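As the work plan foresaw, the team has encoded backbone shapes as discrete tokens. One protein thus recorded appears below exactly as we store it.

:::
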Amino acid sequence: MGTQAKPAFDSSKQRDGTRRIQVELEEQGNQYDIKTIGRSMKRQNLVVKAARKFKVTTDSNHRLPVAPNLLGQNFDADKPNQKWAGDITYL
């Protein structure tokens, strides 16, 4: 059992608990009780990481002025350092 729980746990980026690991092991053809999987994880000190909540950082519905697109998608230049482009939407 121990050799099968750890790879399943690691493949989920250490985010799956006993129930999801049980489903994954059943898909591989191995039938284990949830309590057995839980005890195995405890023996191996496998602790589930909580997934971080998604936080929205961009406000698209603002009333601030939008800078004009001076390049107009024309990124070709004759010499270096004639045209610079960047994205600061995270600010």
